[in-house]
């Protein structure tokens, strides 16, 4: 049997008209009704049975079944309500399972509009399914309703299919008008044909053809069904509230999703008008994603619940949303859907990720989407914008995805063409970040690898102002409504905390290297944790992230350089004069030096309502969410003391809370313990057994070359895998997860994700210093993975550490990883007996014995 074999439609006269079907043919019928489609399916099915073909009916529509059970065929019922990717994948898998030379009947594709509301996605489904059917030498019948779909959808189907046929029923007579018949031709093939029994009478006379077509309504160009639905919804704004609520819920399922706590909160706070306003700023179709939903919902909650308390302080937003369907369309129309399908399998999950990531960085967007991108950029002009991931699963209850996907600043300088190209590439980078190793591991570890993870995109105007050649907000940061970083008994965990920086907030969400953010406990904002007066300058922010107009990129500048320029308000609002350093400079004779400052935010926190406002914002959001929340924000100030806060993001803060109070064991001697400390831990009250301690020795690690330090990090990753399921405490110098090996150990979070406790050990002499990164993406990873965090400042008051307790035990490194014995002087793995770690937040006591 070969592809040139002629196969019957079941209608001999029509076979002659189109020179029969061929293996690989996809046959698309444009119909007025399902009954009309069925009249052509029946002879095809009868013929297929007569020829002893394997016949498969794919059922997904709401219309009456085209074929019934018991007709010597296999029926697959596919649920289209689960979305495009699930539907397309199930069809792909069943086609793969049925293999070569199967004969198919599909329900009417137009019924998919009821579930997806998008012509675009129906076209995408056809583009990914039909080539695979063609490869397997199948024959498949499809139907679409006439005058329903957009011209571009029909054009896409025409381009992909082998046969496109108009099917008319006029005065109970059946006419077939072939529009496309691939690789076949006759002088009369593309005339309409009247079907009389087994005959197909070609209508060649102009009078008859004119009479036929004049009786048929030819629709004008149509909007995508998505646009029709939202356009019709605007008319409902004039109708009673009950009707508005009904329509609002339908639209919310299209933009936000359904069956979730976030949906319930949106349903409570958003009106139909709000939803239509969101839709008016969407490019493409589909969901706007978790980050966009969180930002919009939080703003609406504050306006609704604040009794105008917050409205005066909130900076307006004018964000745009790239719908999640653009992500699929980008993949489909660049021809990568098969690769994505392979990557979504268990065996292909990591294997194909790198190839798909590379392709995602170099694709082309559809022309209609390009045009909408251009219009959006014209709207923003040369204002800097940020292109942020907003995936379906992001920022929801249970999964924060903190820092797993990319955000890209577009400084928006240059010609319109240059600005457009930079924006387009920023979207590609966000799309490609779905294949980042951290994102893949996060989804895998949380059982999400098989879930649809469409990537929507949030495009926000960057909050801030121009300061000479730089653009930045005065302050930015992260806020948490629950403060688990309680460093003494006076700190109220329910008052919340801020992780505050001057300039762009990138320093607040990431662990900054060689720099420190300001931790603000909102019940006592001026109280500074963990810092002696002489260390105040050392443990403060020294560099500011800004957008450089000159270089057209995100960069950092020294605090001294930034504060030397005009920041349009008094710099003492954020920084205090460093009198100690100034005096030392005078003693050394440097009289012309600039006045040195310490960025302590003292005046901001003491003399403005900023801290109180942030406390109230976090409290209000947490109360409505009925859950701790995590926000990102900026704030900009004016000379008159007024300020505006821009709420950029809000998500449920994944935290297990304090836990029950712990009774500390009594010690006969301090040397009975492994370590003891006051404060400097995160993770609530615990009493946790420890099976193993993995201890990286400071001095030995420091003596290694940079390359060897990276080798140590990779070995930690392997130990992390080997000891999975055990209670393991990981201890090392400086910062875990640093990108600078001189400051700590450069592991990825995946390489320490199975640990029960991680401990960062400080040594002022050797230059290692933990960074208590509460509120950062690193912290989110710790909390979501339920890892307890400890910082040990060796040599400080109230800190006792006796490393010989574990170093005197046999080193298990060679047992676990014999090939790593070279580094047994650096990594010591002790198998412990009866070791436990205790913490109590109220007394701020930490003990391991």
TrEMBL record:
One of its GO terms (molecular function) is ATP binding. Pfam families: PPDK_N. Residues 288-661 form the Pyruvate phosphate dikinase AMP/ATP-binding domain. InterPro entries: ATP_grasp_subdomain_1 (IPR013815), PPDK_AMP/ATP-bd (IPR002192). The lineage of its organism: Bacteria, Bacillati, Bacillota, Clostridia, Lachnospirales. This is Pyruvate kinase. Keywords: Kinase, Pyruvate, Transferase.
């Amino acid at each position: 049997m070969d592809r040139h074999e002629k196969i019957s439609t079941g209608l001999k006269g029509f076979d002659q008209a189109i020179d029969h079907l061929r293996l690989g043919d996809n046959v698309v019928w444009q119909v007025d009704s399902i009954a009309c489609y069925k009249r052509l399916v029946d002879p095809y099915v009868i013929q297929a049975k007569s020829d002893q073909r394997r016949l498969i009916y794919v059922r997904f529509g709401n219309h009456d079944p085209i074929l019934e059970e018991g007709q010597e065929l296999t029926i697959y019922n596919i649920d289209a309500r689960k979305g495009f990717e699930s539907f397309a994948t199930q069809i792909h898998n069943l086609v793969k399972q049925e293999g070569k030379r199967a004969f198919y009947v599909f329900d009417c594709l137009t019924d998919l509009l009821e579930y997806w509301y998008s012509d675009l996605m129906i076209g995408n489904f056809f583009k990914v399914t039909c080539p695979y059917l063609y490869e397997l030498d199948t024959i498949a019948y499809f139907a679409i309703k006439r005058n329903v779909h957009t011209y571009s959808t029909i054009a896409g189907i025409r381009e992909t299919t082998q046969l496109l046929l108009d099917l008319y029923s006029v005065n109970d007579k059946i006419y077939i008008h072939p529009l496309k018949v691939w690789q076949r031709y006759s002088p009369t093939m593309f005339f309409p044909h009247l079907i009389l029994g087994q005959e197909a009478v070609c209508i060649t006379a102009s009078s008859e053809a004119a009479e036929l077509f004049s009786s048929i309504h030819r629709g004008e160009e149509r909007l995508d069904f998505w646009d029709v639905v939202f356009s019709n919804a605007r008319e409902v704004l004039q109708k009673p509230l009950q009707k508005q609520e009904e329509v609002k819920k339908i639209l919310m399922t299209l933009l936000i999703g359904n069956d979730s706590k976030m949906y319930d909160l949106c349903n409570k706070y958003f009106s139909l008008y709000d939803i239509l306003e969101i839709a008016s700023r969407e490019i493409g179709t589909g969901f706007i994603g978790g980050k966009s939903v969180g930002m919009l919902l939080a703003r609406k909650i504050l306006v609704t619940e604040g009794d105008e308390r917050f409205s005066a302080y909130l900076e307006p937003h004018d964000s745009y949303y790239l719908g999640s369907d653009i992500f699929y369309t980008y993949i489909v129309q660049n021809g990568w859907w098969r690769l994505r399908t392979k990557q979504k399998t268990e065996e292909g999950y990591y294997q194909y990720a790198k190839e798909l990531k590379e392709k995602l960085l170099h694709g082309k967007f559809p022309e209609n989407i390009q045009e909408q991108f251009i219009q959006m950029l014209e709207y923003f002009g040369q204002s800097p914008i940020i292109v942020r991931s907003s995936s379906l699963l992001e920022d929801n209850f249970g999964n924060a995805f903190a820092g797993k996907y990319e955000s890209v600043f577009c400084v928006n300088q240059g010609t319109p063409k240059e600005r457009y190209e930079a924006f387009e590439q920023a979207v590609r980078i966000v799309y490609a970040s779905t294949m980042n190793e951290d994102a893949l591991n996060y989804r895998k570890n949380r059982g999400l690898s098989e879930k649809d993870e469409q990537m929507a995109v949030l495009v926000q105007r960057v909050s801030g102002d121009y300061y000479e050649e730089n653009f930045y907000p005065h302050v930015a940061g992260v806020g948490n409504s629950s403060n688990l970083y309680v460093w003494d008994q006076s700190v109220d965990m329910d008052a919340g905390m801020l992780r505050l920086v001057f300039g762009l907030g990138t320093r607040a969400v990431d662990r900054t290297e060689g720099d420190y953010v300001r931790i603000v406990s909102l019940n006592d904002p001026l109280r500074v944790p963990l810092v002696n007066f002489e260390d105040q300058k050392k443990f403060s922010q020294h560099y500011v992230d800004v957008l450089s107009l000159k270089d057209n990129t995100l960069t950092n500048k020294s605090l001294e350089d930034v504060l030397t320029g005009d920041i349009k308000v008094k710099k003492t609002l954020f920084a205090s004069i460093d009198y100690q350093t100034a005096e030392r400079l005078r003693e050394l004779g440097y009289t012309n030096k600039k006045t040195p400052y310490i960025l302590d935010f003292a005046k901001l926190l003491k003399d403005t309502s900023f801290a109180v406002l942030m406390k109230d914002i976090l409290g209000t959001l947490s109360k409505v969410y009925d859950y701790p929340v995590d926000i990102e924000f900026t704030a900009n100030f004016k000379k008159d003391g007024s300020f505006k806060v821009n709420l950029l993001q809000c998500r449920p803060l994944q935290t297990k809370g304090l836990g029950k109070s712990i009774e500390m064991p009594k010690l006969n001697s301090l040397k009975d313990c492994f370590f003891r400390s006051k404060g400097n831990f995160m993770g609530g009250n615990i009493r946790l057994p420890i099976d193993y301690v993995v201890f990286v020795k400071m001095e030995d690690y420091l003596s290694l070359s940079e390359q060897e330090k990276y080798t140590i990090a990779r070995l930690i990753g392997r130990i992390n895998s080997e000891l999975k399921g055990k209670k393991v405490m990981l201890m090392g110098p400086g910062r875990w997860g640093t990108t600078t090996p001189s400051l700590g150990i450069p592991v990825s979070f995946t390489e320490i994700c199975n640990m029960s406790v991680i401990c960062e050990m400080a040594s002022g002499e050797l230059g290692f210093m933990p960074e208590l990164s509460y509120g950062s993406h690193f912290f989110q990873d710790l909390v979501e993975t339920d890892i307890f965090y400890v910082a040990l400042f060796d040599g400080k008051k109230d800190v006792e550490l006796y490393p010989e307790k574990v170093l005197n035990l046999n080193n298990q490194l060679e047992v676990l990883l014999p090939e790593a014995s070279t580094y047994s002087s650096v990594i010591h793995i002790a198998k412990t007996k009866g070791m436990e770690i205790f913490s109590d937040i109220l007394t701020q006591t930490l003990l391991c014995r």
